[in-house]
Amino acid sequence: MEKGESALVAEMRENLRKLRELGIEPYPRRSARTHNAGEIVDAFEEFEGREVAVAGRLVSIRGHGKAGFADLLDGAGKIQLYVRKDEVGDDRFAIWKLLDVGDVVGARGEVFATRSGEKSIKVKDLSVLAKALRPLPEKWHGLKDKEQRYRQRYLDLIANEESRRAFLLRSRMIRVTREFLWERGFIEVETPILQSDYGGAFARPFETHHHSLSMKLYLRIADELYLKRLIVGGYERVFEIGKDFRNEGMDRTHSPEFTQLELYQAYADYNDMMEITETLFARLAVELHGSTTVEWHDRTIDLSPPWRRLRVADAIAAAVGADAAGDPKALAAAARAKGLDVPEGTAGGIVIETILDELVEPGLIEPTFLVDYPKVVSPLAKETPDDPDTVERFEVFVAGLELGNSFTELNDPDEQRRRFEMQEAERAAGDFEAQGMDEDFVAALEHGMPPTGGLGIGLDRLAMLLTNSWSIRDVILFPPMRPERQARREVA
After folding, report:
1. Domain 159-307+366-491 carries which CATH code?
2. Which of 50, 165, 315, 340 could disulfide-link 335, Cβ–Cβ 3.0 to 4.6 Å?
3. What pLDDT band is residue 432 in, cutting at 50, 70 and 90?
4. Helix or strand run (H / E) with residue 6
């Protein structure tokens, strides 16, 4: 009969006691290691017959009597250990008999293959590096509960190879992104997370209080306004990869704490940002998967440039048969006819966003730039040269995911002030997502900011695409969650 968790814990603590009785320190200061499991397995012919020292966690133990096997998992892979009493001696074999799944051990021995072809190490010396006192999830059939995987990510990483792989891919994604931008002459910078005035996006901020200065501060919702100050200061290509915070709802594509790439290039516009986006995404696919194609559930998506450009006006006309720039009431009526919840009197901008959110964006599976937005929903971008009601903005979509947003940046300080004033009025009326006046930023623009293209990419969502993950919480190591006690009370 399978043992319960409490019985396993008691057994592991008893083994700890016995190890100490043998004079073994179960938590030593360090361990000598010559190689990791991955490099031994990958270059087995080179290592076969050689003596190596490895270290890692035991994820399975098999065998009885005077010999046994165990699987050792480290940060690079997994390899089998073969332990025989006549090879390691009585003292070390006594240690072996007191080991549990989950223990971290060191092993020295000869690399060989078993008769079944399993790449292994014939152990000559064995040591305990960290005695586990709680069993691993495999003891109760794996870590399958999503909530537990997110709350105890360390167990998820031990138990689930796909999770380890996803986060390694995410790390490589960020490294390649940096290399791509460095190659293009961008410099990486850091801007304030705590801000006295939040801006650069439309979102409700998190608030905090600085006791020494006795002032309210906000966690940034975007990096934009500080990065554009640097363009004014003479840095012509800047980027930042960092955390932003928005006090909003949570679902499979939204997290209140998220990682964003923002970049700004002087003497450029949104066309240049499109080229950067599609070239970067294709480069990432090749670096991570060996080709420009990625798997997204039951689809194969090709990220190779050039991507489709779809005008917002054309997308809305195809979705509801109405003109986005026409009569707002007629547009709302057309939206209602398609089953959208658009009450009488809904503002025209909200109607447009509802149509895009509900009818257009979910169908953008192949890489698509949705371009040229109505000014009413994009007040911080420059107007297109042939239509004052349309601005040079795009959003990028792949697999129905919104992955990026870009403007040809507004650099007229007087127009920027007018738009801030409009937003400030909205904030005073109770719209917490509206942006307020930022006098210092306007003053920076008054010193002259060259024509500039700006781009923001949500790196968590990009990681979803590149790791074929359905939820944003699957690509954030420690996603925001309610405390477990509170979650249990709400379920009850």
Report:
1. 3.30.930.10
2. 340
3. low
4. helix 5-21
